[in-house]
Amino acid sequence: MSSLAGYEKVILPDIPNLNQIEVYEKHGGYDGLKKALSMSQDDVISEVKKSGLRGRGGAGFPTGLKWSFMPKGDKIRYLACNGDEGEPGTFKDRQIFEFNPHLFIEGTLIACYAMGIKTAYVYIRGEYLKWINILQASLNEAYAKGYAGQNILGKGFSTDIVIHRGAGAYICGEESSLMNSLEGKRPYPRIKPPFPAQVGLWGQPTTINNIETLANAAVILRKGADWYSKIGAEKHPGPVLYGISGHVTKPGVYEGPTGMSLKELIYEVAGGIRNGKKLKAVIPGGSSTPILTPELVEKATMDADGLRAVGSSMGTAGIIVMDEDTDLVDTLHTLSKFYHHESCGQCTPCREGTGWLEKVVAKFAEGKATRQDYDLLLKICAQMEGRTVCALADAAAWPVRNTITRFKEEFEARMADQDKKGWEYSMKAVSGV
Amino acid sequence: MFSFTEENLRLIEAEKKKYPTVESAVMPVLWIAQQQNGNWLSEEAIQAVAGVLDLSPAHVIGVASFYTMYNKQPVGKYHLQVCSNISCSLNGAKKIIHHLEKKLNLTLGETTPDGLYTFSEVECLGSCGTAPAMQVNDEYIENLTTEKVDELLKELGK
Amino acid sequence: MKVIIDQIEHEVDGKPTILEVASKVGVEIPHFCYHPGLSISGNCRMCLVEAGTPKMGPNGVELDADGKPVILWMPKPTTACSTQMSEGMQVKTHKTSKVVEEAQKGVLEFILINHPLDCPICDQAGECPLQENTFQYGPEGSRFEFEKNSKPKRVELGPNVMFDAERCINCTRCVRFSEEVAKAPQLTVINRGDRNYIATFPGMELDNPYSMNVIDICPVGALTSKHFRFKARVWEMSETDSICTGCSAGCNVKVWVKNNEVLRVTPRENPTVNQWWMCDQGRLGFTELNENRVSGPSFKGQAITWEEAAAKLSDLTGSVPAEEIAVIVSPFATLEDNFAVISHFKAAGVTSFVRFDHTAGSDDHLLIKADKSPNQAALTLLEKKAGGFLTGKALASAITSGKLRVLVSVQENPFGGELTSDHRSALKAVISFSTNLNETTSSADLVLPAATHAETLGTFINAKGILQKVRPAKILKHQNRSLMRETGLSRWDKHAWKYDKWAQPTHVTDAKPVWEILSGEEYKSAEQVFSRLAKELPALNSVSWSEIGTGGIQLEPASKPETVKP
Predict the structure, then answer these.
(1) Are A367 and A416 a contacting pair, CB within 8 Å?
(2) Which of residues 184-203 of A touch C (CB under 8 A)?
(3) Domains of chain C with bracketed CATH
(4) What's the whole-model pTM score?
(5) B touches which chains (3+ CB pairs under 8 A)?
(6) Which residue of chain C is at minimal alpha-carbon distance from B56?
(7) Domain A21-230 - what CATH class?
(8) Mind listing the pLDDT tens digit for each residue in A343-375?
(9) Which of A316, A304, A93, A71 is nearest to A214 (CA)?
(10) For residue C452, which of C228, C238, C242 has the smallest C-alpha distance?
(11) Pick from C417, C535, C501, C55: which is nearest to C239 by CA?
(12) What does the alpha-carbon distance between residue A296 and residue A402 come to, in Å, rounded to a whole number?
């Protein structure tokens, strides 16, 4: 039976013109905010904790717990809403901006209330101008109706929401880079500790949440944590937006419960592999999550535990499907080129390693690689992983490591002829490393 | 010499009010400058941004040069930005790029002599479900095919 | 609190970082981007270490079977520069951790893939942290087989600084220095990723008064001095710890000499005086130590011997009553020189001692002082002994009125500003003790060549009342043995071959410290002059020569003002 039978869509329901505030209100819009404002701040945080919501931006950190890290007191504090959405294969937040912007606004207001925040900044990638405009229009409606701004709903609570347009940099999706970008600095990620909850935007306590995460918060307050926590996987519950792209018949963003089987998402929800081809590989959660072989896809369910079991992770739930004709060497080259292009250049291993990886992967693509290059790729990855301020170096290394190990034959097949015959050239003797 | 219009100066003042520090307004003000300057940031424009925000010009160019969407060189009337990242590539982005290269007789990063088109390759646009995709200036054109590209060029070339 | 680095326990105070503790206890942790005078940026990743904290149970620190604390090690290596130590923290450096050793090798291999290996033509070679760290911690080769990135070379960032972007390792020390210390944000990193490099805004220059400090802190040869480029390999030069005499800040410096020629001056760390920095003006003032020097005594333009010069000096000063002689003392000369001058002429009955003012502008935010002379505070100490000082103006009017007829100028240039040719005509004789040729030496009857601060040993007192020593970096023709002992040596000097500085007569000046010219057989060394003056001057009664060391000593502020109104 389909996991979607009887599933009630709450993030992207099939309601026309939901971006208009009257329509949104008619369908329970801003009820969550009203409910939150009738509760204590701590109770709102407890409710979110109880729901089991985990961040939808990639790291999957429990949202309620994150909110509870914000220190109490009178200090000015900020919320940064992460709508940078730059991870290849990820295109879900733009659906929220387009089809249900008020849900995100409502979630943001609830988060602000729960954490005593008076200003929220929504960081949206520069390319999304269309969706920035949609969100701004919705925001204006929310202000006009007294949901945002001063003395919200007469409850004495005030919050402003400010939209900040990015300008083309993947790294700004990393939370501390995003903060530096907002502050008008070069967006280099910051060293942690201190964590944003202590020293964040402009030195003040700050929480950073993904757009979809905040939309979920609105749902939790509207429908209750008990209702919410029963959706999907027990330890990673709730509705999630699956973005399915690549060689499927019906690519797109689909809402469903967490924990759906990857197979069902590919073959039923997205209509299966295009042109009746066979499956070759799937990247389950955006480009940096480890790639899955068809055997692993068989077993995979889309939640933290389910994907950990197959050696991958949920990431942004951006599922990239590749059919049997896919050239994985070329595909990996595309990704390595991307990470090289997007490395901010702050830390040595990432600045230099991403370029090196790209060059060696290119050698495979050109059919000039050797066995030593294969080993070298793994060694470069090892020299990058866990050696940098942020996780971009890891994000760049993982696709390489996982693709070349899980699809080793394909890379072997692309080695230069003499290497296929087992010609050994001892790099070790040369480098001593 | 670049100087902000009265209206843009008002917009800049509004942007400054959105943040606790003036430095934070650098990105929105760069956007305003780029728009006023015909979709690119000249050195004068960057200096004007530094001027209105009382920042060092070095800092502003450091910020501006980090982001790909701030054009540091003049771009054509239509800036064709084709995504070549994974989902688009899986769906034929390379073919679209080659087609455009041939059609416009341009290599990536170049502008046509008549100043009508600049052709760039960009990273993931977040159009993975409607791949391949490109942006013409700020507008998304999705589910690209070579036929669709031909039609588009015909439309734009008018 | 107690912390453990490489299994050795250390007791530390406050909240230091791992790197701070390590450098304090003598554990070397290689690094590039960290600089104690700048904010932490943590970007080079060279100082990675393994760190862990004791596991806390319900009854405090949990112990293992051996009774040792259970340590929760961080899952990944952490940067020593940015990680604060806490009670019981344990750290493993490359000495005890294979992971750290590998991480260091990895970082160095990465840094070097796009770094031109042009050490043989690079000014930094020999004092290059990248070279040194690679030698000590790096891999033995590279597995990188592609073309290196190409970036701008020979970029003139400003009047004093050249930049090679290919050598740059993006540590951002220079950018942080400009913003945080010089308060002149003229530098930035532009672009991103491995296309990154530092730049000024197009058409603008790195021209702040402290711009050259970026050369010192650059851990590679990316930023070099326009004035020093390709002049010498660093190991060919001797380095002598001294102080800058460009103003009353008294910045601590190293004076670098090859073939008895000063080639550069760099700041030397002194936390109470100049931290790690100095201004460009002070740094570039060294040309007068090499050029335009007075060499050998002369009388009315004719070279004479030192013996003849001594006779002329007593003839000229004896030609008029002592009360008609004026002696200009010098805030550019050492305390010892001034003491000897005042003692000598006082004994001869001279009562008119003159001191010029050299203030211009105001102090800046960092080091540059309004008082451009380095030793006014020493003159203040001597004021009582001199019986007060006349100003330049008072001197001029006393000459015009015919009251003063013989002028002795010690390391000053009165005819370069304070006095005119009319004053010269009114004077019967002018005697100039001078390091360099100037208006006064050309109009003087007797010229006595004085050693510069780079050739002498002696003390200066800066604006903060810190007593410091200058040391001889260059030798003189008739080298006093007491000076030779203090002179810095280069590798070449030590191994004495034909290019060493003793052998190059072209750069050797025939000059002497003023105290030596005047004292005859009275003093054998600056130290002897100092012991005498320290006995005489209450502010220095408790100061011994040796304790001044290379860091200087703060004189008691209470005993400093000793002014007696003339």
Answers:
(1) yes
(2) 186, 188, 191
(3) 2-109 (3.10.20.740), 114-225 (3.30.70.20)
(4) 0.94
(5) A, C
(6) C185
(7) alpha beta
(8) 999 999 999 999 999 999 999 999 999 999 999
(9) A93
(10) C242
(11) C501
(12) 13
